[in-house]
Anti-sigma factor antagonist (Streptomyces fragilis), 127 residues
Amino acid sequence: MSEQELLLTVEETHGPLAVAAVGGEIDFHTAPILRSRALDLIEQGRNRLVLDLSGVGFCDSAGLNALINIWHAAQGAGGAMALASVPARLDRMLKLTGLDTVLAIYPTADAAIAAVGPRPGGEQIVG
């Protein structure tokens, strides 16, 4: 994978829930790709997103902006977005910018799914 590649693989879908693994670098060149692919999922009715970021090696301010845009789009569609397995370097950036108080962050994809995924009987928790 070159420095300007980003992988987004949808690993699971269930109703409005989509779990996507993100790999590579999220920067000025790749952030629009992430945003576009995630917004496509939301437009397809997958408005409850879990982004597994364990494969992300780098994220700059453009990447943070993309995450905020995705979160806004999910919220606007009546859904939610959660980040899972956030690498330590990105976690520090989220804390320094205060985004950790806005974006839902979980240690694992399973924990994020439990928080934002559809619940039996229609009960949902918005993260």
